[in-house]
Amino acid sequence: MAKGPTPEELSNIDYTPPPKEWMDVPTVFKPGTFCWGAKGKNLQILEFPNARDWTPVEEDWKLPENWQEILLEGMKERLGKYRSFQLFMDICVRCGACADKCHFFVGGGDPKNMPVLRAELLRSVYRKHFTTAGKMLGKVAGARELTLDVLKEWWYYFFQCTECRRCSLFCPYGIDQAEITMMGRELLNLIGLNTDWISGPVANCYMKGNHLGLEPHTIVSNIEYMLDDIETITGIKINPSFNRKGAEILFVTPSGDLFADPGTYTCMGYLMLFHELGLDYTWSTYASEGGNFGFFTSNEMAKRLNSKIYAEAKRLGVKYIIGGECGHMWRVIHQYMDTWNGPADFLEVPVSPITGTRFDTAKSLKMIHIAEFTADLINHGKLKLDPSRNDDLVVTYHDSCNTSRGMGLLEEPRYIIKNVCNHFHEMPENTIREQTFCCGSGTGLNAGENMELRMRGGFPRANAVKYVKEKHGVNMLANICAIDRATLSAAVDYWVPGVRVTGVHELVANALIMKGEKKRETNLRGEPLPGKEGN
Amino acid sequence: MKILLPLFTVIALVVIAFVGVQANLHALFGIVIPYAAVLIFMFGFIFKVLKWGRSPVPFRIPTTAGQMKSFAPWIKQNKLDNPSSRLGVFGRMLLEVFLFRSLFRNTKTQLYPGTKLTYGSEKFLWLGGLAFHWSFLIIFVRHFRFFMQTVPYPIQLAEHLDSFLQIGAPLLYITDVVLVGAVTFLFLRRVFMPQIKYISLPADYFPLFLILGIATTGIMMRYFTKVPVVRVKELVMGLVSFQPVIPEGIGSIFYIHLFLVSTLLAYFPLSKLMHMGGVFLSPTRNMANNSREVRHINPWNYPVHVHTYDQYEDDFREKMKKAGLPVEKE
Amino acid sequence: MTLETFLSEKKPALIEKWFNLILATYPADTSSFLKNQKDRFTNPVGHTIYQGIEKILDELVQGVDLDRVSPFLDNILRVRAVQDFTASQAVAFIFSLKNVVREEIKGEKNLTVSCDELHKLDSHIDALALASFDIFMKCREKLYDIRANELRNMTFRLVQRANALGGERDAESESPPEGSNNDNA
Predict the structure, then answer these.
(1) Binning pLDDT at 50, 70 and 90, where does residue B192 land?
(2) CB neighbours of residue B270 within 10 Å
């Protein structure tokens, strides 16, 4: 009889050997933790090098002959172009303050997910090729050659970072792993090493204007279906405009809101709010994407995608732009757009046509966040609200990484929620605002094939949600991010069943009393309003 | 290995200095090496900072650690953690450089058995770091009495305050105790915390041992083996006034101390110790969060290949017309 | 002293040993962080496991009621279901409790345990293990469910439109956009 392993043997995997130095631990591609490789045709559309189909688990990655040279050249170029990169390669003292701040480390325990070590993956090669000590002393100075194993390690771990910047908050020198991951991914893209989940949407967005690849007529009909639902719920027929020249405002939101539940309810929220205000605005099918998966590829690609927003604003002759609820979209818009594609001197400083408020904080960019716009409306009493329509909801609020640590939009959404909901509870202090935990699936990691990784990364966030669920009976997780709406739905479904996910403007629209509306029986999801159950 | 190698290196340095002095190489260890070390330090430091300073900052990427300056006056901005003005940035940098603001924020994931998971505040690293850096600075400043004929009042004051406990003769400096304690703490952290041990390199242990060596030799000279201070000052003043002399009768321990200091100076610009200069240049800390208000210029911004609206319309014109969307060209 | 009182008296030691055995099931690099006494709580994974086994031991002492104990098993297995374990590896920790208890008994001179008692305890632990298999499978199924749900959420509007349009438009314009890449925000 074959002798099977005893429970003890099963239990004791790799226990006895003392941990090796991290440089000597080879990378194992574990199923459920990585995404499929980019497809050749998508890279071709984007004019990216080494376009071919490839598979991460196969031995041969079909790399160009001189890939090391390309990467080292690329590193040298970027060290000269980004002070952040050069500085962050040089000054880390490995104090460890960042170590347990990463959601992937906290939720998974893989030591190479400690931000400091993820950075060392790149830093060790930097030392070998760009510092005297590294060249002379090698491993003693923490330096190593750029081998194929190192390359694979880079790919594996730079696609296990969501550029959430939580580590950077705690670093005494502000070393930002997001910057290092960005550089790492740029380098990988020089030899055609991207993921399918990122390069596909980027190609879509480049050719068709949005990540989903919705063509113009599809966008229109998607929104028409939402309008039908809105009419069913409120009795009000809304007629938004598309690609309309001469509108006052261009509205740009992530395309996920046009397509995937529960984002669609948020989108219905925008439509209802703008209709109620009689806002002179237009959608665009060309600039139909607020998000920017190019940002998870290279700085140049991000700029190429982002250019459409200003170009379309100029073509349509609008005065300014309002942006919808999205996380990384707002990092890009807030910290990059004006620099890349500005100055937007053809636009005007945003002024709310309803309240007359002038948004001077966006006077150069000429684009405001819808949470700012709505908070201002509420503050001026311009919205008739009935928060009791949300009384079946006990709400908590998840700050998106990018709007909190790459912008600082913390109070505006909270102000809105508190005005449209009667039951609001914050999660524990060290898991919200600037210390917020990532959903675990940002930066293009929201694929299906890496679900285990996503669940681990989402664990710290879900853990905090669970806490308020147990303490206050929270059943709705609000946020201002399209990726969150998709990915937190999955994360809470796994970790905290019974909690659902919503955009802030879905809550607004539920509470919004519209002129001429019929007596509402259901919320936007078609569920009976509190007090109307069983009707 | 990671720990022993740097330890033995420091021990070797001590032995080299000791043997050197026994072999009557006073001039080498008392004049040539210190001069060389200072030169390396100065040029290395300046070179590094210039190198950083020359590399551009293409984007405005502060890590925002609080509420931004809002359009609405009724939303309170966190002016120090999310500054929008130069003054705010100055404040943020002051807090960062002098009080280690970011480390102060440090949390530790904790569990109280049977109860709940919390992210408690973790101040030990902050405290240890602060104690180390400040005591080092004060000790450094105190040493200026060796570099000047008449000791200026601020340095005398620092000395008085440092020894206000009035213990022993010569009076015990508090910073000596704090420095040794803090370095030991920082070392033990790297040995006993598995995470920190895992990420540590020889280059992390070496400066700790080196500084410990410097502190130990310094303390021995002051409190135990008693070197002739007047002659030491004579030597130092000689170096400072570029008329170097080697006075007789300064024990080897002084030369060991001086050699270790020289090593530290020369090692400084080649190593992570450059964080001292780097922290001032960190773009996630020293920039105002005003990128929507003022356009940030990227010096190497270049035109990129884009997919224009005209190309887009060409691709979809018929579908657009069918869906009732306006088009530029019929 | 009966086995029952013994177990409740020795609970802290049992938890300690069992906890360490469970942490040992993680790869060396990971467990070296988790198993360290001072450090083991720096991880919600550690928290979930610790809290879970504490409650399971309570239950074991009182006689196992699967309805009561399931939520705690669930907490532990939900973590392990996304952490590179096979089904057998994921639930093996339950069986290791047998050894933990026996070792404690060995060290205790004043205690004689009857075969019956020990057999009863083993059956309880076996019941836990069987329940754990079910929970592990449920978690894995949930993961696949979530994958499917994501797809369904993404395509809901598409289906809605397709249904309404019937066969009005040409097939090409109705095909979902670009294979798997159709749900990014």
Answers:
(1) confident
(2) 16
Residue C18 placed within a domain? yes
Of A132, A169, A221, the CB nearest to B270: A132
Q: So what's the pLDDT on residue C38? A: 36
CB contact under 8 Å between C46 and B193, yes or no, is no
Give the closest of A8, A25, A218 to C99, CB-based: A8
Taking only the tens of pLDDT, chain C with its 185 residues reads 677 888 888 888 888 888 888 877 776 666 655 554 333 334 667 777 888 888 888 888 777 788 888 988 998 899 889 988 888 888 998 998 998 888 888 877 777 778 888 888 888 899 999 999 999 999 999 999 988 888 777 666 666 666 555 444 443 443 444 434 444 44
Whole-angstrom distance, CA of residue B67 vs CA of residue B70: 8
Q: How far apart are CA A284 and CA A321, in angstroms?
A: 11
Query: Of A452-456, B31-35, C41-45, which range is least confident?
Result: C41-45
Strand segments, DSSP code E, in chain B are 107-111, 117-121
Nearest chain A residue to C35 by CA distance is A15
Is the CB of residue A365 less than 8 Å away from at least one CB of chain B?
yes
Put simply, the chain B residues between 286 and 305 with a CB less than 8 A from any chain A CB are: 289-298, 300-301, 304-305
Q: Count up the domains in chain C and report the number.
A: 1
For A:469-528, CB contacts with B below 8 A are none
Domain annotation covers residue C108: yes
The b-or-e profile of A288-314 (16+ CB within 10 A means b, else e) is: bbbbbbbbbbbbebbbbbbbbbbbbbe
Contact C42 B109 (CB under 8 A): yes
Does the structure's ipTM exceed the value 0.90?
yes
In B, minimum Cα distance to A176 occurs at B284
- State the nearest Cα–Cα gap between C92 and chain B, in angstroms: 23
Let me know if residue C147 belongs to a domain: no
Nearest CA in chain B to A106: B109
Per-residue pLDDT for A240 more than 70? yes
Under 8 Å between Cβ of A455 and A495: yes
In a domain, C176, yes or no: no
User: Span A429-439, mean pLDDT?
Assistant: 91
> Which residues, including other chains, have CB under 8 Å from residue B293's CB and lie 6 or more apart?
A360, A361, A362, A363, A364, A365, B84
Domain boundaries, chain A: 19-193, 201-511
Contact criterion met (CB < 8 Å) for C146 and A490: yes
- C13-to-A186, B131, B259, B307, C51 alpha-carbon distances in Å: 51, 39, 54, 67, 15
Q: Do C44 and A106 touch (CB under 8 A)?
A: yes
A12 pLDDT band, cuts 50/70/90, is very low
Nearest to B297 among A174, A339, A404 (CB): A339
CATH number at B4-322: 1.20.950.20
pLDDT of residue C40: 35
For residues B30 and B7, what is the distance between their CA atoms, to the nearest angstrom?
Answer: 24
Q: CB contacts < 8 Å between A and C, how many?
A: 184
Q: Compare CB distances from B109 to C43, C51, C54 and report the shortest one's residue.
A: C43
pLDDT reading at A40 higher than 90: yes
What predicted TM-score, i.e. pTM, was given to this entire model? Answer: 0.90
Residues of C in contact with A455 (CB under 8 A): 82, 143
Domain residues for the domain of C63 are: 3-142
Q: Is A37 in contact with A196 (CB distance < 8 Å)?
A: yes
C-beta of residue A81 within 8 angstroms of C-beta of residue B54 = no
User: Which of A109-113, A158-162, B219-223, B267-271 is predicted least confidently?
Assistant: A109-113
Question: What's the rounded Cα separation, in Å, for the pair A337 and B60?
Answer: 11
pLDDT at C176: 41
Q: How far is C112 from chain B (nearest CA, A)?
A: 31
| Residue A367, H or E segment | strand A367-369
CA-nearest residue to A15 within chain C is C28
Mean pLDDT of B14-22: 94
